[in-house]
Amino acid sequence: MSEEFKRPDGRKVKETRKIVAKVGIIPNADGSAMFAFGDTIAIAAVYGPRKFHPQHQQNPEKGTLRCEYNMLSFSVSDRIRPGGNRRSAEISKITEWALEPVLMLDKYPNAVVDVYINIIQANASTRCAGINAAAMALAHAGIPMKGMVSSVSIGKLDKQIVVDVSKAEEDWEEGEGPTDIPMSFTSDGKMTHIQLDGKITQKQLEEAIDTAKEACAKIYDIQKNALKEVVNEK
Amino acid sequence: MTDEKRLVIPGEVIAEGNDYLPGEWTEKRGDEIVAIRYGLFEETDKLVKVIPISGTYQPRRGNVVIGKVENVLLNGWFIDIGTPENSFLPVSEVPRYVNRGELESVLDIGDMVIAKILNLSKKGIDLTIKSRGLERIDDGMILEVNSNRVPRVIGREGSMVNLIKKETGCEIVVGQNGIIWIKGSNIEDELKAKKAVLFVADNIFAHGLTEEVEKMFAKEKKNE
Amino acid sequence: MAEGIRINEDRIYEYLEKGKRFDERALNDLREIVIETGFSKNAEGSARVKIGKTEVIVGIKIATATPYPDNPKDGNLMVTAELTPLSSSRFESGPPKINAIELGRVIDRGIRESKFIKTEDLCIKEGEKVWEVYIDIYSLNDDGNLMDAAGIGAIAALMNARLPKYDLENDKMISGELSDTHLPLAKELPLSITVYKIGKHLLADPNREEEDVCRSRVTIAGYGDRIFSMQKGGGETFSVEEMKKAIELSIKVREKVFSSIKKYL
After folding, report:
1. CB-based contact (8 Å) between C59 and chain A?
2. pLDDT (tens digit, 9 = 90+) per residue, C113-152?
3. How confident is the model over A149-163, as pLDDT tens digits?
C-alpha cells in the first residue's frame, strides 16, 4: 500500500522535499550555513568559542553551547511579532540538546559557542532544517566534533508513515489525522532528539524511527557534500 | 602522499587499517581513524591528520601574537589576543623598570602590542614582551586573517611573507593569532602589502600560490 | 577585535586627507548593490539587498486592521528593524537596542513623510477596516552602512508586495493568498541616503572600518531635490556649510543609487 499513498505534493512516502545546503553564507560569522527542505529555509551562524558573559554561567570543565532559534516575522502567513516566544525558547533548548552530544568542547573551558538560527521561510519541519544548518555551521566554524547531526521530521498521515512533513501534511484531516515526529541522529546513528505530537502505536513508532534513521543518512551525505564544496572566503 | 588537497568533515573515516597512526584532530575508533574537525586531510609516513582551515585561534606556548590592550592594572595589562581566555602581561615581563602608576606610559588602553605567549594554564594566558621585536605598535596598519591561514601567509620558511616584504618594502609581523601588522614608508605600499596578504589568506587552496602572488605584483607594476 | 584600532583610524584619516579610501572608491562611490526581490513565499513582498558584504532582508506583511481614530480613512504602517546577533559579533540577543529602534524609525519616517504608500487607498471601510502594512527589516551581515541597505530594501520590498486576497462576501481577508493588486505606491521612490562624516570629510557608504571611525552622520530621504525626512546621528557637529554639502551630496548619491538599482525593481 505504501508506495500508492498520495502525498499532497506528489512525493513518494520516503522522499524529502528538494534539499538545498550551502556553507559560508555569512562572512562575519566564524561559521555559517543554510539548509532548506523545499520552502522551509533555515540559516545558521556560529560565533565562538568566545568569552562567556555573565561570568557566573561559565563552566570551568568545558565550553558551553548556546543556541537561539528564531522565526522571522514574515516567514509564515500570519505575521509573528519579532522577538522570542515560548515556542522559540523551547526549540532553542531542543536544538542545543540535539547538537551537544557530538561537540567536543572540553578544550574551551569557560567559553561559549553561540549558534543563531533564523527561519527565513517556514513550511513545517523548521526545527529540523535549523538543526541541519546549525550542525553544518558548527563544522564550518572548525569546532571539534565527533561527527555530524542530521535531522528530519517523520509524519504519520492517517496510517501512513512519510518523510519530511510539509505544512499541508501537518494539517492532515483524513482518518487518524496527523502525527509529527521530528528526530535527529548523529552520523553514527544515535538519536539526539525526538519529539512527538499526535497519536501512534508502538509498532508504528518503531517504524518511524527506523525510517528517520535512513532519511538522516541521506541528509548527512548532502551536508557533507556542501561542506566539501570549497568556499574560498573565510 | 599526493599533493591533492582533500577536505574532510567531522566524523568522516579518513583511514582504515592498523597501518595508520592517528595525528592531530583525528581519533582512532576500532580499526578506523576518524576526523574530529573540518579541514584538510594530510598523510605523512602513515601518520594522518587534519589541518584546520577555519575556527578561532588556538593559543600555544611560544607563539608571537598581536593584541590590543583591554585594561591597565597596578601590576600589568590585560591584552585581547582574540581568545576566550584572558591574557595578562605582567609588569615584570617588560624589558625595563616601570614605576608604579606609570603603566599607562608603557601601554595604554587601545594600544596594539606584539607579544609572546609565555605560559598557558587553566587560569589564562601569560604574555611577555621581553624579547627582541616585541613592542608596542605606534603606526602602520593592522589587519586580520583567520589564524588557521597564518602558515600560508608566512609560507615555507617565511617565503611568502618575505616575497611580500620585498615587493612592497614594508615591514610585516604576522601574529599567530591572525593579527598582522604592516608598516611601510607610505600608505600605498601598506595597502599593496595588505592586498597581497588577504589574497593569500583567501586562496589557500590554490596551487602555485607564490607564482600567483608574483604575477599579481608584476601586473601592478605594469599598471603604475 | 579589529574594531577601534587607533593606528588604522589614523591611516583612514590620513588617506582621506588625500581624498582617497582604502578600497580605491571615490568619496561619493557606493559598493556594488545587488537586489533580489520576491524571495519569500509567505511574505506579501520581500527583498534581499547586498551592498558589498553588507546584507539585509526585508519582508512586507499585510493584514486588515482597525484604522487609527485620527486617520479613519488611512491604512496603517509599521516598520521594525532587528540587528540580529547572527549578522555581527557586536549585536546581542534580546529586545531591540536603541540602534535597531532608531534604524526602524528613520526608515519609517522616510516612507511615511514622502507619502510613498498611498495610505488613503488602503481603506476598506472608513473608520472600521483598513489594510495594515508591516515592513520588517533584518540584518544578515553587517559590513557597514546597514542604514542605506535597509532603506533600499524597504522600498524594493514594498514595490514587490501585493495585497492579500479579500473575500468581499464575508468581508474578510483570505490569509496566505495573494491577489494581483500591488500596493498603491507613488511613482517617485523616496530613497534614504546617509552621508557620513569622518574628520572634515563627507562620504557615502562606509564599510565597517570606515563606519567605525565615523562620529557623525545624517540620513536624508528624498526624491529629486525634495526632502521628506532627516536624521542626524552621532555626537559630533556639522558646520552649516558641511550640512549643506551633505544635503547636496545625498542628492547626488541618491541619483547614483537609483540608476544602479533600477534594473532590479
Report:
1. yes
2. 999 999 999 999 999 999 999 999 999 999 999 999 999 9
3. 999 999 999 999 999
Q: Which residues of B154-167 are buried (b: 16+ CB within 10 A; e: fewer)?
A: bbeeeebbebbbeb
Model ipTM? 0.94
Name the superfamily (CATH) of residues B141-223: K Homology domain, type 1 (3.30.1370.10)
Is the bond preceding residue A54 a cis peptide, omega within 30 degrees?
yes
Q: pLDDT tens digits for B161-179?
A: 999 999 999 999 999 999 9
| C39 closest CA partner among C51, C50, C54, C52 | C50
**DSSP assignment, residue B148?**
G
Nearest CA among A208, A212, A211 for reference residue A198: A208
Which of C2, C14, C15 is nearest residue B142 as measured by Cβ atoms? C2
Q: Is C2 among the domain residues?
A: no
Q: Do A147 and B11 touch (CB under 8 A)?
A: yes
CATH number given to B7-52 = 2.40.50.100
Helical axes C146-160 vs C240-261, angle rounded to 10°: 40
Report the distance separating Cα C228 and Cα C190, nearest Å. Answer: 8
Smallest Cα distance from A182 to chain B, Å: 23
- Residue that wins the pLDDT comparison between A234 and A154: A154
C-alpha to C-alpha distance for B18 and B21, rounded to whole angstroms: 8
- 3-class SS at C78? strand
What average pLDDT is seen over chain C?
Answer: 95
Q: Mutate which of C36, C48, C86, C142 to disrupt the A interface (most A C-beta within 10 Å)?
A: C86
Of C7, C15, C22, the CB nearest to B139: C7
The answer to whether residue A234 is domain-embedded is: no
Question: In chain C, how many domains are there?
Answer: 1
CB-closest option in A75, A78, A118 to C86:
A118
Taking Cα atoms as reference points, which of C205, C190, C160, C175 lies closest to residue C46? C160
Residues 73-112 of C with CB under 8 A from A: 80, 82, 84-89, 93, 95-96
Question: Which of A46, A187, A190, A229 to probe the B interface (max B CBs under 10 A)?
Answer: A187
- The 10s digit of each residue's pLDDT in C167-216 is 988 889 998 899 999 999 999 999 999 999 999 999 999 999 999 999 99
**Which residue, among A37, A75, A77, would best test binding to C if mutated, counting the most C CBs under 10 Å from its CB?**
A77
The residue range of the domain holding A149 is 2-228
In a domain, A76, yes or no: yes
Residue C59's φ and ψ, nearest 5 degrees, are -120, 145
| Single-letter amino acid, residue B56 | T
